[in-house]
Design goal:
One of its GO terms (molecular function) is sigma factor antagonist activity. The protein is of the alpha+beta class. Helices cover about 25% and strands about 35% of the residues.
């Protein structure tokens, strides 16, 4: 037991200091994967944390929480090149390292970086709630800085920021005759996201670099909004007033349902993925009906609509707080990281053709995400807001 504990301590310390060789990393993964080392892991963590000499004593409850995270199987990370590493193994190491770094750098000013970890030197924090609201009169409101409570009034709708940061539109049940439903716009930057509840009760989640244009109150016989980027919808049911989403030249029509639309301009197609209900997609003169579990892809360049069975977990991973990849090339991976961490990406040398698969929490610092990707032998350098991908 003593030899096992000593070896685990050495390997974990090497990993925490980013000094692990590939052989040592494989040994560490295999050792934890074999199981039966709970006591050794606990002892190793106690030793490492004791050596850190933090500013304040570590509460026992926090230390125990980290240990439970290490030994608990969790499908957090499972990237491959040619060989898959089990999710529980890689996740355990990442959680350990993040936990160690959290206590090592436990200063109040740094704790805002993330609930999962703190920033390393020359690191980039994950994205968060950042957006602006533009009212019909052109007034721009920073939703990030806006105080809780009523922030504006548009026609018959009161706009409120809730205690958990959501924007909610509450429309009067009696609309004035001259209320035409003022058009509002919520826009997220790179590294931002936001949630909004429209006047009909429909809930919308915006991903980074996205926007939604909508009326403050839905008038007439339809509910119509327009988006760019990516958004997840939970549409309030109203059979008498269809809900229509305009995105990338296509129109999605629903009565009440849950679906995701990815309409970034730098993607090859607009992808609509249906989770519940039924939607109608129109693109030019073509039309298709989607059933739950299906995805429609419409091209920017023509009027085609391709319908196929969808990986719904993959499509809405961002909404659930993860990056998820399935046979994704490095360009696709870095495109998503660029949007969320608000960084520019450069490629130096030959670009790997390897495919990546698995999921990573979106609230992890960028360095932790890149370290996970480096299990596939691709390397990265962070320089300010630029990430270089190297051979």
């Amino acid at each position: 037991m003593k030899e096992t504990t000593t070896r685990l301590q050495y390997l974990l310390t090497q990993y925490a200091n980013n000094a692990c060789s590939r052989a040592e990393l494989l040994e560490l993964l295999q050792t934890i994967e074999q199981g039966g080392h709970d006591k050794a892991l606990q002892a190793t963590m106690d030793t490492i944390l004791a050596d850190l000499k933090p500013h304040d004593p570590i509460p026992a409850i926090d230390k125990e929480k980290i240990f439970r995270s290490i030994i608990k199987p969790a499908a957090v990370v499972s990237f491959y090149k040619r060989v898959w590493f089990k999710a529980s193994v890689a996740a355990a190491i990442i959680i350990m390292v993040i936990g160690v770094r959290w206590f090592q750098n436990n200063e109040p000013k740094q704790q805002a970086a993330s609930a999962v970890g703190v920033l390393f030197k020359n690191d980039v924090a994950p994205g968060g709630n950042k957006a602006t609201l533009t009212l019909a009169n052109g007034q721009s409101i920073s939703l990030t800085e806006a105080q809780k409570g009523q922030i504006a009034k548009q026609g018959a709708s009161i706009i409120t920021k809730t205690t958990d940061g959501q924007i909610v539109y509450n429309a009067s049940s009696v609309l004035q005759n001259n209320d035409k439903g003022d058009i509002n716009l919520i826009k997220t930057p790179k590294g931002g996201k936001w949630d909004v509840t429209l006047s009909d009760g429909t809930k919308v989640w915006l991903n980074a670099s996205s926007s939604i244009k909508y009326p403050s109150a839905f008038m007439g016989n339809e509910r119509k909004v327009e988006i760019t980027g990516e958004a997840y919808f939970e549409v309030a049911h109203n059979a008498a007033k269809p809900f229509r989403v305009i995105a990338g030249g296509q129109t999605v029509e629903v009565l009440g349902t849950h679906f995701n639309i990815n309409a970034y301009n730098d993607e090859e197609a607009v992808k609509t993925t249906l989770l519940q209900g039924k939607v109608k997609i129109t693109n030019g003169g073509r039309m298709a009906i989607l059933m739950p579990g299906q995805q429609a892809a419409t091209r920017f360049s023509n009027n085609s609509i391709l319908v196929k069975e969808a990986d719904t977990e993959l499509a809405v991973a961002w909404h659930n707080g993860y990056f998820q990849f399935e046979q994704s090339d490095i360009h696709n991976v870095m495109k998503q990281l660029s949007r969320w961490y608000d960084v520019d990406v450069k490629f130096d040398g030959k670009v790997t053709r390897d495919k990546f698969g698995g999921s990573i929490p979106r609230d992890a610092p960028l360095s932790q995400v890149l370290r996970t990707l480096e299990q596939s032998m691709v390397h990265f350098k962070i320089d300010g807001k630029t990430v270089t991908v190297m051979e």
